[in-house]
Every structure is written in C-alpha cells, then in structure tokens.
Amino acid sequence: MDLLREFERQNPRALARAISLAEAGRGADLVRALYPRTGRAVTVGLTGPPGVGKSTLASALVREARARGKSVGVVSVDPSSPFSRGALLGDRIRLAEHFTDESVFIRSMASRGHLGGLAGATADAVLLMDAFGYDLVLIETVGVGQSEIAIAELAQTTIVALQPGSGDSIQVLKAGIMEIADVFVVNKSDHPMADQLRREIRSMMEMLHWTGWVPELVSTQALEGRGVDELVAAIERHVAYLNETGEIERRRRDAFSHQVRQLALGRLEERLDRALRAQPDDELDPYGAADRVVSQLWGE
Amino acid sequence: MDLLREFERQNPRALARAISLAEAGRGADLVRALYPRTGRAVTVGLTGPPGVGKSTLASALVREARARGKSVGVVSVDPSSPFSRGALLGDRIRLAEHFTDESVFIRSMASRGHLGGLAGATADAVLLMDAFGYDLVLIETVGVGQSEIAIAELAQTTIVALQPGSGDSIQVLKAGIMEIADVFVVNKSDHPMADQLRREIRSMMEMLHWTGWVPELVSTQALEGRGVDELVAAIERHVAYLNETGEIERRRRDAFSHQVRQLALGRLEERLDRALRAQPDDELDPYGAADRVVSQLWGE
C-alpha cells in the first residue's frame, strides 16, 4: 500500500491521512499492518471540565517533553457537536507554537459516526502515532462524560485537571472521574480558591481506597509554565511505577481489550439497529420487544 | 403478585419497591404487567450542568404543578459515582418541602449496573410512575454527558437549564445538548451576566435549523420562584404543540424505541463480555480480535 510505504518513510502526511481514514472508520487495514510496531510510546491522557485550561496544559507538557528531546503526538478529542471544530479553534491557537516543530504532531478528532465511535477512532490514532514512532502520545479530551472517561482509559497515565472556584471537584465527583486519575492537577493555582480545591480533592481521595498507586496532586499555572516540571516529574514517577510493578502490561492489555470491545460493540449495534428498524409496530411492552429482537438476532 | 396488588391499590410503598426492583434490573415482570396503564402522564426532562440549580427548579416546578392540582412523580438521576447518594443529599434537602405531600413521589436513581444501565432503570421508573397514575413525571438529570442526553430523551418535553457567568453555554454547545432542548431556562436570572447568556443561547440557536417547534427561552430565579409560572406556561405550550401536531405519538414511540434499544443492547453487551472473557491472550491486532469475537457470537 502506497500510504503504508509513505508511513514507513516517516512522512507525517501519511500519518495524517492514516488518521483521517481511521476517523472515517476505514483504519482497520493500516492498524493491522502497523500493530506490531506499537507499544513503544508513553501514552498520557489529559482530561477535565471545559475551561480548566487543558490546551494550555497540553501545550506546556509538549514544550517540556520537547525540552527533554522527546517527540510528541497530540490527539485532541472534542465531542460530536456540529460546532466543535469551531469551538476547537482557540485550542488550535494555544497549540500553534508547536505547529512548526516537526517532532510534534497535533491532530484533533471530531468524528463519532463509525464502529466504535469517537473512542474507536481515537484508539486508532493513538496506535498510529505510536507506530509512527512518537515517544509521547498525549490524548487531550474535553468534558467529563462517559466517553471522555473511556478515552482517558486508553492512556497509561491519566491526568485530571481542575480549576479553582468552579465547582469542578463536585462535577468530577459526580461524573465518577476520581477513579481514573493517576495525577490530579490544580491549574490556575494562583487563584484565591486554589487551596480550597486542593483540600476538596484530598478529602475526596480519602473516600476512595487506593490499592497500589495513590494519585499525586500537582499545582500548575500553565499559562506561565509554573508547576509543569513538577507535573512531568509526577507523570514520570507514575510511568516508573507502572514499569517496576509490571502494571504497564495490564494497562496495555486493558487499552487493547477496551478497543476490541468498542469495535465489537459497534458491529453488534449495527446489527441491532438493522433488526430494530425491521420490527413491527405492535403493542408489545419494552421488555417483550427487546426479547424478541435479541432472539431474532440469534435466530433462537 | 402481592406487590402488583399493592401497586394497584395505590400504595406508594409498592411503587418504591417496584422502582427498587427496576434499579436491580428485575423490573421486567412489573413493567410488563403495568405497561397497558402507561401513556397518561406528561413526562418532562430537566437537565443542565451541575450547580445550575436544577433541584431548586425541580422543586419550584413541583410546587407550581401542585398549585394546579396535578400529582407529581420526580425521578432524580445522578451518575454512577460511589458518592452520588451522598452528593445528592443537598438536592434531597431542596426537595424536602414536598416529602410530606402524598401527591408527590420523589425518587433518586443511583444504580447503573444492569441491562440498559441507568437509562434502563430510569425508563422503568418513569413507566412505573406513569402507571401508578401521576399526572406529571419529572426526570431530573445531573451533568451533560451522553447518558444524561439519552435519559432526557425519555421525556416528551426537555428543559435545558443554564446559569450565567459559568461558560455553561459553551459546555452545552460542546456536549451537543442544544439539539435536545424544547425549552431553555436561564436560571439565577438576576446575575449580571444573565443577558449575555441569553444572547449566547440565541446566537447558538441561530446556528441550528429548527423544523417544527422552536425552543423557548425562559428566565427564572428559582430560589424566589420568579419566572417559574412562565416556565410552566412554556412547557404547556410545548405539550399543546405535541398534541396538536400529533408529534406526541412520535415522542412516545421514540422513548419506547430508546428503551427497547437500551434493553437489547444490555443483553448483547452481556453476551459480548462473556465471549471476550473467553478470548485467548494471543498476538492478534484489535480489529482481528474484534472480528473473531463477533463471528464467534454469531457462529459464523
């Protein structure tokens, strides 16, 4: 495949085209061909409520990684709103300083409409950037919905960023995001309510019983780059923990299983929706109708 | 069934037990038996970001409905966070004034772990309250995630509440919630930035091409009850529109289809997860592994 050859020649255009194919739900062949080359990149997920300054944090992390001589791929995920591409413009501007750096590859994902949905295309993009040879793959997600949680689970290390004075801690608490954080970041740490947010996070953490890694809490002022080195150090401690304990393998398996489940579920949903469209419009109750369509799918 | 007889005797304890069974994923028999009695209630969904004052709005709506002699069932939905029951305490307090009113039934849903998940149990609870005979069933959801959108779609009329000065409009935009709103509420309308939020909502609405009903925009100060009568009037206009155009039937069918799909999907996911657990731990790529498990499920 011409695209595959260009990909192997380290042509970034080939990577961009490969990710576009994945977004269109046609990434299977490439991922199959390139899968043996994956598993070398460090994958970091960065999530948190809108407005917390994730793109500024992402940009600062990229800068720090570049200063350490690492190449970086960034997958910026936004929801399926028809306007999200526009809404991302600001983020693109914040990341613009890296556009000219050929050791940095930035890609925003917008598509949802294929097997496995956004999570499927994002998982492909992460694998493709990994196979392309980037040392660090940063997965930036917007919001605290279930799909954002699922996407964050693709990463080996998940950073949950919060901002003071926003009620974010409650939001994160309610969304069940505490559980996925390896590192908490209090951004805009010069805010008068930053201390209160740190206290809230600590007290929330006390409600959970951690086994193994206990999430670290880092304060940053990403706009001025303050605290970013501590954040990178916390990430490195977590990566070291994963490697020393061998948990890195479990995380890779989990990410793999997650992607397989997403892909299989997408196929099942397609069959289900075809079968549902063919259902008669009769007086069954919901449970009876569900039983009927499932047994039809299985020819029982 | 004893429970069914007590339910038919209008014993609220029976309704509470029935919903608990639904939360445990064992509501099928009751829903089947009671389904013919459903379809009389007006179902209203109330959603929006945390902190917007949804529980205060819900309480005010209940008060207004009671003043008009309507009985009300409230389903308060919160995510699967282990702390959500605790986090709901404040909401419970805000609704407390109605606890002694036997024409008001308030139930919060916390469980996710069964076929169809939270949406499935919530759909059951709505059907059960409808069958029990409540005139209005109010579905209050927390957050703006995909599952909250799905739950709001159970309702005939969906209210999206926003608060000024919170960036909520952007959040709602990104979450793709614009599309599900029949009525927008700007709560805390005495906030200095309320006018700006109203402008933001109007300009966002111009980006969508509405066919049929165009969402109304209502301002409330729910704590003092201001604007709640306008909100109820907007809801009544939408319900009238649904009935005059016959779209009410389409909404009922959509809610039905949504629940059937959730139930069927839950069953498919159970089978898929059983099959995934049985997969060998070999060197397949994700797409190959997904193909294999799907074809195993279909014995192809």
What does this structure look like?
Two copies of one chain form a homodimer. Chain A is an alpha/beta fold. Chain A has two domains: 36-245, P-loop containing nucleotide triphosphate hydrolases (Rossmann fold), CATH 3.40.50; 248-300, no CATH class. Chain A has 13 helices and seven strands. Chain A has helices at 2-8, 12-23, 28-34, 54-67, 84-87, 89-95, 117-132, 146-152, 168-175, 194-207, 228-245, 247-277, 286-297, and strands at residues 42-47, 72-77, 104-109, 136-141, 157-162, 183-186, 216-219. A seven-stranded parallel β-sheet of chain A has the order 3-2-4-1-5-6-7, with helices on both faces. In chain A, helix 4 packs parallel to helix 6 (89-95) and helix 4 crosses helix 11 (228-245). The N and C termini of chain A lie far apart (43 Å). Residues 80-91 of chain A have low confidence and may be disordered.
Beta-strand residue percentage of chain A: 5-15%
Write the CATH fold name of the largest domain in chain A: Rossmann fold
Counted beta strands of chain A? 7
Number of domains of chain A: 2
Please describe the structure with a list of short key phrases separated by commas or semicolons.
alpha/beta; homodimer; 13 helices; 2 domains; Rossmann fold; 7 strands
What's the short version?
2 copies of one chain form a homodimer. By secondary structure, chain A is of the alpha/beta class. Helices cover 52% and strands 13% of the residues of chain A.
Produce the secondary structure layout.
The structure is a homodimer of 300-residue chains.
Chain A: H1 2-8, H2 12-23, H3 28-34, E1 42-47, H4 54-67, E2 72-77, H5 84-87, H6 89-95, E3 104-109, H7 117-132, E4 136-141, H8 146-152, E5 157-162, H9 168-175, E6 183-186, H10 194-207, E7 216-219, H11 228-245, H12 247-277, H13 286-297
Parallel strand pairs in A: 1-4, 1-5, 2-3, 2-4, 5-6, 6-7
Helix pairs in contact in A: 1-2, 2-7, 3-7, 4-6, 4-11, 7-8, 7-12, 11-12, 12-13
